[in-house]
Amino acid sequence: MKTVAAIWESKLFFLTQCIWLLVLAGVGACTSSAPPRHYRIGFSQCTNGDAWRQAMLAGMTKELSFYPEVNFEIKDAKYSSALQEQQIKEFLKEGIDLLIVSANETEPVTPIVEEVYNRGIPVVILDRRTTSKLYTAYVGGNNEEVGQTAGNYAASLLGQKGEILEVLGAPGSSPAIDRHRGFVQALAAYPNLKLTAQVNSNWERPSVLERLPAVLRAHPTIDLIFAHNDRLALGAYQVCKQLGLDHRVKIVGVDGLPGAHGGIQLVQDGILKATLLYSTGGEEAIRVAMKILRKQPYDKENTLSTMVIDSTNVLTIKLQTEKLASQQQDIQRQQRLLQAQLATYTSQQTVLYILAAALLGAMVLGIIVWRAFRVNRRITQQLAQQNQEILSQRNQIQAFADRAKVETEAKLRFFTNFSHELRTPLTLIMGPVEELLTNGADLSAAQRHDLALVRRNTQRLLQLVNQLMDFRKIDVGKMPVRATEGNLVAFVREIMDVFERPARQRGINLRFLPAEPSLRLWFDVNILDKVFFNLLSNALKFTPERGQITVSIQLVPGERSVRVSVEDTGSGISEQDQAHIFEWFYQGNQEVAKGSGMGLALAMGLVRLHQGELAFTSQPGKGSTFTVTLPLELPAELRSITALPAPTFALAEEISAPPLLEEVVPVLSAGKDSEALVLVIEDNAEVNAFVAQKLRTHFQVKTATDGASGLRLAAETIPDLIVCDVMLPEISGLEVVAQLKADWRTSHIPVVLLTARNAPEQQVEGVQAGADLYLTKPFNPTFLLENLRTLLNNRERQREHFRRELSVDTATVAPQRVDQKFLADLTAIVEANLATSELSVEDVARSLGISRVQLYRKVKALLGTGVTEFIQGIRLTKARQQLLDTELTIAEVAYRLGFSSPSYFSASFKAKYQISPSEFRALHTTPSI
Q1: Percent of the chain with pLDDT over 70
Q2: Does residue 224 contact residue 266 with C-beta atoms inside 8 Å?
Q3: How many Å apart are CA 488 and CA 519, to the nearest integer?
Q4: Residue 560 within any structural domain of the chain
Q5: Which of 636, 665, 660, 633 is nearest to 649 (CA)?
Q6: Pick from 464, 887, 889: nearest CA to 649
Q7: Does residue 463 lie in a domain region?
Q8: Is residue 760 located within the same domain as residue 833?
Q9: Distance (Å, whole) CA 832 – CA 695
Q10: How many CA atoms lie less than 13 Å away from 907 in the CB half-sphere?
């Protein structure tokens, strides 16, 4: 009994033999018929610019469609014999099997045609003969016969009597010569026919339009014009029509081409009397050429016949030519379809061979696969076990990676939150220190030195906190670029000014070498300030005394960028540290001046954020050079119309910084601030107590520890100022500001936001919420106090503005803002109750829906007066208007406006305007006559 393997092997062997037979049969079928030989025919044409030549090419193209093995190339001499000779030489260099020539001029082209013929290359002369008999075949019309036929037709047309004008072709061309000769020979048989004049041309109509008018004017008795082609005949007709001779002079042309502008149509339209058919010979030339190339019998002289086309036969010939053209189009469509079918057949035949070969290969591969099947199955089982182990390990690695990512994120979040929380205790440290340094006149020099040391190190700690927060922003992509157009040279110069003093103290030469005095481009001030500050701080840190630091700025036009280099003569960077200096928290192996390991990493991140590059070169013991390359142009989305001011950075702990605000903040002067009420909203108890303590010596102070209680106190007490933290429980400081500005009771109160959030976008967010001032922690108490006083002064100026609006000419205030709406509502209530003498402050407050105290503080804050004074002012203002009405007595005016008696009205009016009501009326009214 046979095994399964033996059966499969026998079947595969049988199938393989069958496939081989199919392939051999296909190969035999392919090799049984030899492929046709390909030929290359060159055609040197005198021009392709006229309709007759284009008809010739169309005939050639039609005939060549039957010979796909022919590569046909045309060169147009454009009526230049020299160019035609050069083109024939090019055909010889390129290699052709046969040359077809239609000469521009007979004699100049003859030598090169003889050269081609002598080289053994067949030459077919088309239409225009050469002067030599060294050619293989001639195809063309008999131009002498054309001339004779034209002469005989002219004799019959004129009754063998009249004057004739001949328009000849180009001088020297064989068709012009032969047609003239035949025409003259025919006219010799008619003694009463006279060839009166001749006009030469270049075979084109413009030459006739230029030369014929003068000849016709000289010979006005011309009866017939014989033109050597239909284009010349059309030109002759146009001239005759211009001279008014078109009805008398008969015109005969040559060519007889079909088409809308051909001679046949001109005869049918009556423009020409007749045209002589002169076949192009395009089809016949290709047929003769193929007979020559295929070694078939052919005639050397292939003369094409001619005939006269006139009104007697023009319609028949036109119908025949149109029918031939339609049949030719049908033939061309059938040929295209046949070619498509042949291409399909060829592709299908190729696919069949490919499929046969593929089937053979598949069978061979099937044998190999079958033999390897059992081995592969065993290997597959082993791989499955290994894949399961790898999958398990991958899952473990993924779990470890996810856990590490979560832990890393938690660490970064911890550092960020921790850094944020550090700003509050820094406020409590820097605030008292700044207060002591500013107002502590009794401090000794040692105490001032110690306090300056505390402040400097606090600033250093604040700088590290800011760097940690910037690192987190870059890591999560929350640090936007807000570039503005500025002078980079001046910007870097300002940063260097900070380092002038510490560099001078250590004897370091700080040089600035800009290549241009001014260099304007788009850059983010906040970002580049941190970058260049860190680079200069590092350079100053690692440069020894008497060393040198050079900052240079160079424009690189070829790269559309600018380079800022910071070069020092310090100790340099060791080779092992150079690969890690841009890593976060990497401190290297420096024995001195170790930092936090964040400065260069932060600078690198900021430069990349700014779409720039930060690179360095260093030689241990010789110094380092850090180069910042910035693009001259930034995308539109990174540009900003206005920029936030750059934050001030403290210098490194080794550099003595100037005292903060000591030189710019004046000593506070005593004033009447104690009347103003300030509400402090701060959730941190120590900061709340610190701010309240600093403000109580100058203002009345109330405090709240959350946003809800702060809003409640603000509505109840109507304070003059509010100092609010941003990070509050439940209701944030931004929401507090928004609610305060939306409530007309508190909308006028200036709000100062005090927060540890120092990012530019956070400051913008605070200002957009409606805050009047945005201060970041840690802050200078003196600076805070002066800002509060400035805000109070601004409110006083606003009161004056509102008081001016409430003049006699302004009855109400336009409700464009919340405060103006409040004054408009208050004024409307008072004016509606002017006649009520018992109108009280409680009545007005009740109408507005607020308490008496809230109304008093709101009016006091806006106008600086009490409610009663406000009501009295409205009544007296109305009194001035009504006193101008002489029909009312002074007593009637008094009672109308709610005064209890005329005497009280007069006293009040005179107290305000220093004039009695009667005197005011007498002054402003004219007595009647």
Answers
A1: 80
A2: no
A3: 6
A4: yes
A5: 660
A6: 464
A7: no
A8: no
A9: 43
A10: 6
**β-pairing, 623-631 with 613-619?**
antiparallel
Per-residue HEC secondary structure of 36-96 comes to CCCEEEEEEECCCCCHHHHHHHHHHHHHHCCCCCEEEEEEECCCCHHHHHHHHHHHHHHCC
What is the amino acid identity at position 581?
I
Assess contact for 735 and 724: CB atoms under 8 A. no
Residues 175 and 229 in one domain: yes
Which residues are bridge partners to 623 per DSSP?
Answer: 619
CB 284 within 8 A of CB 139: yes
CATH number reported for the structural domain that contains residue 729 in this entry: 3.40.50.2300
Boundary of a domain, candidates 794, 820, 847: 794
Provide the sign of the torsion angle of the four alpha carbons 532, 533, 535, 540, taken in this order: positive
Nearest alpha-carbon partner for 205 in 162, 255, 247, 163: 255
- Nearest one of 753, 698, 709 to 731, comparing CA atoms: 709
CA dist 644 → 423, 483, 583 (Å): 21, 10, 29
847 and 919 housed in the same domain: yes
User: Is residue 121, in this structure, part of any structural domain at all?
Assistant: no
Rounded CA-CA distance 467/391 in Å is: 42
Q: Could you tell me if 786 and 816 lie in one domain?
A: no
Residue 710's domain comprises: 673-794
Report the DSSP beta bridge partners of residue 906.
Answer: none
Residues 492 and 610 in one domain: yes
Distance CA 665, CA 614 (A): 38
Rg of the chain's alpha carbons, rounded to an integer?
Answer: 55
Residue 656 has pLDDT above 60, yes or no: no
Q: Which of 781, 705, 699, 714 is nearest to 750 (CA)?
A: 714
pLDDT tens by residue, 229-283: 999 999 999 999 999 988 899 999 998 888 888 889 999 998 999 999 888 888 9
- Tell me the CA distances in angstroms from 196 to 149, 223, 262, 851, one per residue in order: 19, 10, 28, 127
The secondary structure of residue 543, as a DSSP letter, is S
Q: Could you tell me the CA-to-CA distances from 757 to 207, 405, 420, 606 in Å, in that order?
A: 91, 27, 8, 19
Contacting residues for 663 by C-beta, under 8 A, at least 6 apart: none
H or E element at residue 226: strand 224-227
* Distance, CA of 420 to CA of 472 (rounded, Å): 11
**Residue 170 sits in the same domain as residue 275:** yes
Between 842 and 695, name the one with better pLDDT: 695
Q: CA-CA distance, 904 to 886, in Å (whole number)?
A: 20
- Kindly indicate the confidence band of residue 481, based on its pLDDT and cuts at 50, 70 and 90: confident
CA-nearest of 23, 71, 72, 64 to 45 is 72
Residue 738 inside a domain? The answer is: yes
